[in-house]
Amino acid sequence: MSIHSLQRSRLADPVREARVHLAAAHRLAVLHELEEGIDNHFTVSVPGSEDRYLVLPFGLHWSEARASALIVFDEAGNTLEGEGVVELSAQCIHGPIHRITGARVVLHTHQTWALALNMLEDNRLMPASQSAAFFHGRVAYDDRYAGTADELAEGERLASLIGDKHTVFMKNHGVLVVGETVAQAYHRLYMLERVCRAQVLAMAAGRPLAVLADEIIAQVQAPPAQDRHSRRERERLFFEAMMRVLDRELPGYAD
């Protein structure tokens, strides 16, 4: 039976599950073309701990991610478990965001279509589709790119921007999403790329976008009472389906 089956998922050790899910997210990012080889970072707070984080050690390609290869680090950049080191910008961005916002999962990429939108003078994500409507009012915008993140102060600055949002547009840089679970955060990151791609392609037509009315956006964001699947359940089912894709296309992440 697969590591991510419904029964095993409910009974899994939380730390083991976090490792498997984080490794899977890295490999999925390769399949979905969200990664840049060995750069960018996905982190998860170690279950049961508030100041220890799982990360892929710097130097491994994301397609090589395995549950057993992940290391545990702290905000000071120390490797507490495993072999390898955390990359400096991962330490400086992710550590403070975990600490200040309480986010269990932080995913940061330079994914192509989101970055393309962030290269524009006006980089705002427009609620011009059903999928885009889910992000409306939930994106924080960092309009000041000041170079690479080499100090914890940069992560603290980004954390102050997040507030009650779950997505950050980093002008001239990339994007960042937070979540309570890997499934939730990765679903947000995956959908964000598709929404950004659709907007950039629509903008290329050179015609005005048809932005949804506020009342329609509110209706989209509020799940109907009769819906048998909660938002969290949909995120879980999405991620389990994606892990089954990995089992066929890029297996080995659970080792």
Could you please describe the fold and organization of this structure?
The chain is an alpha+beta fold. The chain has one domain (6-249): 3-Layer(aba) Sandwich (L-fuculose-1-phosphate Aldolase). Helices cover 43% and strands 13% of the residues. The chain contains nine helices and eight strands. Strands 4-3-2-1-5-8-7-6 form an eight-stranded mixed beta sheet, with helices on both faces. Helix 2 crosses helix 9 (231-249) and helix 4 crosses helix 7 (182-203). The model has no long low-confidence stretch (mean pLDDT 93).
Task: State the gist of this model.
The chain contains nine helices and eight strands. The mean pLDDT is about 95.
The CATH class designation is: Alpha Beta
Mean pLDDT: 93
Strands of the widest sheet, in order across it, are 4-3-2-1-5-8-7-6
CATH topology assignment: L-fuculose-1-phosphate Aldolase
User: For this structure, what is the CATH homologous superfamily?
Assistant: Class II aldolase/adducin N-terminal domain
Helix fraction bin = 40-55%
Q: DSSP helix count?
A: 9
Q: In the CATH classification, which architecture applies?
A: 3-Layer(aba) Sandwich
Structural class label: alpha+beta
Total beta strand runs: 8
What distance separates the N and C termini? 14 Å
SSE arrangement, N to C: HHEEEEHEHHEHEEHHH
* Beta-strand proportion: 5-15%
